[in-house]
Design brief:
Largest interface: A-B, 32 and 32 residues
Largest sheet of chain A: none
CATH topology of chain A: Recoverin, domain 1
Number of domains of chain A: 1
Radius of gyration of chain A: 12 Å
Oligomer: homodimer
Shape of chain A: globular
Low-confidence stretches of chain A: none
Number of helices of chain A: 4
Order of helices and strands of chain A: HHHH
CATH class of chain A: Mainly Alpha
Distance between the termini of chain A: 22 Å
Number of strands of chain A: 0
Chain lengths: 87, 87
């Protein structure tokens, strides 16, 4: 379990580090991450408009960036759906 | 990333399935999971009192069980600490 958590952390950092703050995902970084890493779990993963809506729904403090815990919420819902748990 | 999410889901299910509802972790199931799977990420992983406190802090609906999203919160905070992100 700890190694799976480590994978999610390191991949978040890999994408978050490309531009701006290395602790947050910009819109472009988020789009790349979803398209390349979550193609099966996220419906319309390649659709920029859908991804923009997804990002705004997660961006609780509306700073245009996703911090780790905001990102973690997305993964939680995807995991919950993938696991077949009632939402 | 999707495979790492799959690992976390399947391991949650493996522990949640041993007694009672297979969608939630009982106190015993949670204690086993933390002790065996998160020995490095959770301080005092072997201490029943510490684990009880941890479980109550996560059990938002206080039903004595942890559903997947309640459990996911714990993993998020552990991952955030592991990643060195400000909480």
């Amino acid at each position: 379990m700890e190694s799976a958590i480590g994978v999610l952390v390191s991949q978040f950092k890999a994408y978050a580090g490309t531009d701006g703050s290395s602790d947050t995902l910009s819109r472009d970084e988020f789009f790349k991450l979803v398209t390349l890493e979550l193609p099966n779990f996220v419906k319309n993963a390649g659709d920029p408009v859908a991804i923009d809506q997804l990002m705004s729904s997660l961006d609780k403090d509306s700073d245009g960036e996703l911090n780790f815990l905001e990102f973690w919420q997305l993964i939680g819902h995807l995991a919950s759906k993938h696991g077949g748990f009632s939402q």
